[in-house]
Amino acid sequence: MRSAVLSLAMALLLCAHPAANARDAYASWDNRCEECHGDADEFSRKYLWDVDAQLQGRHHVDNLHLFLQNHYIPAHEIEKMTAMLQAQANKMARFDAECGSCHGSAPDFVRASISTWGDGLTGVESGIPIAEFLPAHQQLGEDDAEFFSRLIARVISQIGRD
Questions:
Q1: Which of 52-66, 79-93, 104-118 has the lowest mean pLDDT?
Q2: What mean pLDDT comes out for the span 43-72?
Q3: Hey, which residues does 57 pair with through a beta bridge?
């Protein structure tokens, strides 16, 4: 009986491994990289490039995945980490510039203020879907509201809440 329970526990751990390790890419960065490289978004904008949908940097330009794997990033976190970094490469810090003074960083804002329960993304406090809320928030235009909706959805996927 004891060996059956142990076998079942081991099987559950093996099956759950990828999902259990689908960590918040920003938290992974903060735990593994931030001490030497600083803020993830700032680092990405300064040192990485998105060239034809390929993330490139100064080191291992032709195989950044291999570089990340050899730079202490576990294999199951590389895709999420790459997507997080690539999203900011070649881009202005628009959320920081336009929203940061009230909302802080995008990942912190999304963790605290956006719910993924129900039909899409809603504000935790208001309960209003962000697609309805954003166009009226701070007089955002339709294109701006769409930009920030996509940004929030991307950050949610990067912090492991998709």
A1: 52-66
A2: 79
A3: 48
Angle (nearest 5°) at CA 122 between 120 and 123: 165
Q: Which of 98, 115, 92 is nearest to 45 (CA)?
A: 92
Q: Residue with structure tokens 């990405």?
A: 44
Q: Write the Ramachandran bin of 160: left for phi over 0, alpha for psi from -120 to 50, otherwise beta.
A: left
Would you say residue 10 has pLDDT above 80?
A: no
The full length of the chain comes to 162
Residue 25 · residue 156 · CB < 8 Å = no
d(CA 29, CA 112): 19
* The residue to which tokens 């259990």 are assigned: 20
SS3 string of 6-66? HHHHHHHHHHHHHHHCCCCHHHHHHHHCHHHHCCHHHHHHHHEEEECCEEEECCCCCCHHH
DSSP secondary structure, 87-114, as one string:
HHTT---HHHHHTHHHH-SHHHHHHHHE
CB 51 within 8 A of CB 118: no
